[in-house]
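Complex record, three chains
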Amino acid sequence: MGDDRRIGAKRKDDRIIIHFDYDCFYASVFEAENPALRSLPLAVQQKQIIVTCNYEARRRGLHKLQLIREARKVCPDVIIVLGEDLTRFRNASKALYNFLRAPIWSGKVERLGFDEVFVDVTDMVAYNVELLNRNDLQHSFFQLSRDDPTLGFSYDATSIAGYAYPSTIMGESVCRLPTSSESPSVEAEDWLRIRLILGSHLAQYLRHQLDEQLGYTSTVGTSTSKLLAKLVGSVNKPKGQTTLMPPYRQDANGLDSNVTTFVDAHDIGRIPGIGFKIAQKIRSHILGRPGEFDAGLIYGGTKEKVSVGDVRNFPGLDRNRLEAILGGPGAPQGIGTLVWGLINGIDDTEVGKARSVPRQISIEDSYIRLDTMDEVRKELALLAKSLVKRMHMDLLTYDEDDEGDGSDEFRADQHQPTQQSRKKWMAQPRILRLTTRPRPPPNANGTRSRTFNRISRSGPMPNFALNLDENADSVADKLVTEALIPLFRKLHPEKSGWNLSLVNIAATNMAETAGEGRDGAGRDIGRMFKRQETVLKEWRVEDVDIPPSIEHDNGIDNHVEDQREVSCETSEKNGTEDAIEPSQESYVEDGEWDGDEDQPSAGITCSVCNALMPEWAMTAHWRFHSLEG
DNA sequence: GTGTGGTAG
DNA sequence: CGTTCTACCACAC
């Protein structure tokens, strides 16, 4: 109470949010295409650097954003694949997103970049809390559909799925529903605990579906906001899931909440929403050093660590002080309140509903040297061709005759312009923008050159760019001569003397055409789920006597990033990595489950036919029911 | 409506 | 830190 006053805002903990982060996504896309790569050190290259690599590669000392030369030296037998064309990643990301979206009632499923997804499952959890039998919580059934009570999975509502933060003490789990005999605040925390437990089981179900059906492992967090779900998810990486457990509020005796304890431990710059600039401003205020740069590479000497706790407890610091520190020209208003909220674990931002068309499409390339008009013309032509292609891929819809089968929506490669399908714009970009990043000019004296910045010019998107009867390549060429070159001259009036390190062209200001551009609000969840079922049939495990690939959430052997030596534990065989087919009968050879979860107890009983079976068989089993019934 | 800057992965 | 290739938002003009 007094605490709330100091914070200046209250946290609402009435939602359940799950955050998914696909493990080393780019590498996983290549692995899904070619499963033989799973057991080999694999790195994805863009230009001179490794943008990501799989965990086998990390085990051998590679890491993200490493120079290619360095990577080859550290690990000579690394397999390096080129990942500059993002098409396959974009398609895989969309397919995973659609797969995740199908069973989510609220439609609140938001992609962040290619490899992260937030889902709001508040309503699904609330519905299933009502279904709980308080006399037999251990044998609960989570309904994924309001209409079909057989669609769902069995779970134990007395314990969390995966990891908890803080780590659970054995036997401490709640084995009952709260009663009204408790104080209101205790009761509220107990209900929150139950809802988080259900959330964790739904998270686990979805995570296992992604792995078993599509061959992608992920790292997952469950809490009451996007901020907390995302932060807590990263506690157990990879292939782990973590739930931030109550108490979420400071108790009557002033004991800190788990939220505060958890968030306090993070470096200030690690909080989503607090980027480099804001973090630096806060750091210099806390450290008492006005706005100067960090000491930098003087080794041993960086005491520059400023944690969220340091900031939250700094004398005299509150949201108003923060507003004064962070505000100013260009800064969003209310930034102080916003950041102060984040520091206190408060994030009320909604999980956005799906957007059917992007706000903008941009293509860029970087260059070591680009200083002649001829080269610029050539590069603009390449970029323009890509842009036109992307506009067609992302903004066109194809009205085909066989509208009944919507299963294509779940395929990685959307519709191809087959035969005489009728093409139509879902949205039309109104603005064309050209952006360049000039290389810091060759400064005469010792003064250091200005920081690299992007500059841009924009103009109306020519009508011919949207003409579908014209050949795409010739459209692109016309775009160069009639629109991009003029924009370029506006940006760089001088005939020479410039040297560009980057060129970007973008189609923006999308005008959605009537009837299209649904945000998913018109979706029929039941129908979408049925569709997913249709697609799933292709991956269906034929023989339920063979376990599908089992997830390993062994927190001990997964933290390989910083290890120099490989322990026996680390190198042990892993069912997922051994998989020959990404989504079929891979299984642990000795039949032993080594994860902390998925322990098959004696078995579970089907709520429909009372058949007894191990838990891993249930997915296939209820699907069997849903297809028969 | 146009251009910049900051955020994110 | 920055290396890459994006996407979105908010502000100032």
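Note: Residues 290-302, 402-415, 517-629 of chain A have pLDDT under 50 and may be disordered.
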